[in-house]
Structures are given as C-alpha cells and as structure tokens.
Automatic annotation (TrEMBL):
GO terms for cellular component: plasma membrane. It is a multi-pass membrane protein. This is Prostaglandin F2-alpha receptor. GO terms for molecular function: prostaglandin F receptor activity; thromboxane receptor activity. The lineage of its organism: Eukaryota, Metazoa, Chordata, Craniata, Vertebrata. It comes from Nothobranchius furzeri. The gene is PTGFR.
Length: 324
C-alpha cells in the first residue's frame, strides 16, 4: 500500500510539473505574440503619421527631424517583425536548439538581430538629439550644412555602426549563445571564461550608455536654449511651435529609453547562475523590447494637436499654447 501511495504521489507530481511547464510555455508564446502584434501595429500607425507629416511639410528644419524619426520607427518595426518571428520559430520547435539548429546558424542570426535592433534605436535617438540641438542653437548652420543628403549619410553610418557591433562576435569567432530560458540568443552573460566574454557585451553597453548620455545632454541644452529664447522674445512665437513639438517628443523618447534600456545596459555578467539571476536577465530583456513598443506612441500622442490640448489645461502654459 505504501509503495502504491508513493508511486501515485510521484506520478501526480510529475504530471503537475509537466502541466506547469506547458502553461508557462503557453504564456511565454502568448506574451511574445501580443508584444509582436502591438509593436507592429503601433509602429505602423506612427509611420503613417510621420510620412504624412513629411509629405505636407515645407519647413526644412523639421523635415530632417522627421526623416530621423521615420527611420527610427522603421527600425523598431523591423525589429519587432524579425525578432518576434524568430521567437515564434524557436517555440515552434519546443526550444530544442540541438534539433533545429545543430550548427548554431539560427542562434547567430537571432543574436545579431537582438544587438542590431537594440542598439540602432539608441544611436538614432542620440543622432536626433544632436540634430535638434544644432537646429535650435545654430539654425543657419543647420539649414545650410545638414541637408537631406547629409542626413541620409548619417543614417547609413548609424546603421553601419550597429551592424558592426552585431557582427563582431562572429568576426572574432565568439558566436552568440543560447540563453538559459532557451528562447533567445545573446552574448555570453554568465561567468566569463576570458576577456572576450567581458569585452563584447561591454562594447554594446558602453555604446548604448554613451548614446543615452548624449541624448540627455543635447536634449537638456536644446530645451534650455528654447526656453531662454522664448523668455527673451515673449511676443515672437513664429517658428517655435515645431521646435517645442520636437523637443517634447525627444524628451519622451529619452525617458522611455532610459527606463527600458538602463537595467540591461548597466548589468554586469553575474558570478552565479541561479534561477533568480536568469529571471532578472529575462525581465531586463523584456523591458528593453518595450522600448520599441513605446517609441511610436511618442509620435502618436505628442503631436501638435495633442500638445495644444495639454497646454490649454494649465493657465501658466497658455503663452506656450499660443505658439502652436
């Protein structure tokens, strides 16, 4: 009797563990599908808004900004589409990498896409902040030097830098690794074996943090310059409405990037490989993916028409509202 009771208890425990694993897998797949769908729809709506604004715009200064913004939204859109498709592909084969990816080709592509579509938005946001700082503080230089040709070249260099960082592990023969959750690939994030395991994620983190720092500095200086200019010329609102709109959008993008990417960029490779460490890593990665979902809502919500209504709510902001 006792043997049968122990066997029944063990069987029920195994069934419960199996059911729990299946439920956890189902929730992960559902979360990935929802994140991918919301990200694609959000970036699609934002892209339509930006393209329409670019087509009807006659202000050269804002045209450059909209070109940067459209490139950022397209990058986020492709990131959701490609990375989301890879996640679903992995779950389709029940995360058995040794079965569907014995040579590590899919993992290398997955890891490179994670790095490229993670670093590109940070670099583009910093480039947008620099462009807007020059547009606010040096308008003549901006209109004569930062032509559409130069902006497109800068965009190409930004994507090229992100691509080089993404391809660096393959170039130094230190390929991306399947992470502990077995649902994604990235740099070696556990106890480092040598200096390369430290250098590769360090390059990614340093570039990301420098991009965030540059965005903070340029956006702060541009906001201060715009505020000082408004205080000196209280009756002159002409030409400042689009500056206010773009600065508000950049500040929102900067805040979203700091909150979403900060935890992952400042994270050091752990000395231990426990479940809590794995869960924290997966949580920080999921937070970073939300950056690509929230970015387009900045352009959807912080448009001139919406900002007018916001400024009208506060009497002290009425003077700013008139500039729209």
């Amino acid at each position: 009797m006792s043997t049968n009771g122990s066997s029944d208890t063990l069987y029920r425990s195994e069934v419960a563990a199996t059911n729990g694993t299946c439920c956890l897998k189902q929730r992960s797949v559902t979360a990935s599908v929802i994140s991918m769908t919301v990200g694609i729809l959000s970036n699609g709506v934002a892209l339509v808004i930006l393209v329409k604004s670019y087509q009807r715009l006659r202000i050269k200064s804002k045209a450059s900004f909209l070109l940067f913004a459209s490139s950022l939204v397209v990058t986020d859109l492709l990131g959701h589409l490609i990375n989301g498709s890879l996640v679903l592909y992995v779950y389709r084969f029940h995360r058995k990498w040794e079965t569907f990816d014995p040579h590590g080709i899919v993992c290398s592509i997955f890891g490179a896409c994670m790095v490229f579509y993670g670093l590109s938005p940070l670099l583009l946001s910093s480039a947008m902040a620099v462009e807007r700082f020059i547009g606010v503080t040096k308008p003549i230089f901006h209109s004569t030097v930062l032509t559409s040709h130069h902006v497109k070249r800068l965009l190409g260099l930004t994507w090229l830098l992100a691509a080089l960082v993404a391809l660096l592990p393959m170039l130094v023969q230190r390929p991306y690794e399947v992470q502990s959750s077995r649902s994604w690939c990235f740099f070696h994030m556990e106890q480092p074996k040598d200096w390369l395991d430290v250098l590769l994620p360090l390059i990614f983190s340093v570039l990301g943090l420098l991009a965030l720092l540059l965005s903070i500095v340029c956006n702060t200086l541009a906001s201060c310059a715009l505020l000082v200019g408004r205080l000196r010329n209280k009756q002159r609102c002409r030409g400042t409405s689009y500056h206010i709109e773009m600065i508000c959008q950049l500040l929102a993008i900067m805040l979203v990037s700091c909150v979403c990417w900060g935890p992952l960029l400042v994270r050091n490779p752990p000395a231990a490989n426990g479940e809590s460490t794995r869960f924290r890593l997966l949580t920080t990665v999921r937070m970073a993916t939300w950056n690509q979902i929230l970015d387009p809502w900045v352009y959807i919500l912080l448009r001139k028409a919406v900002l007018k209504k916001i400024f009208m709510l506060k009497p002290r902001l009425l003077q700013i509202q008139r500039c729209f």
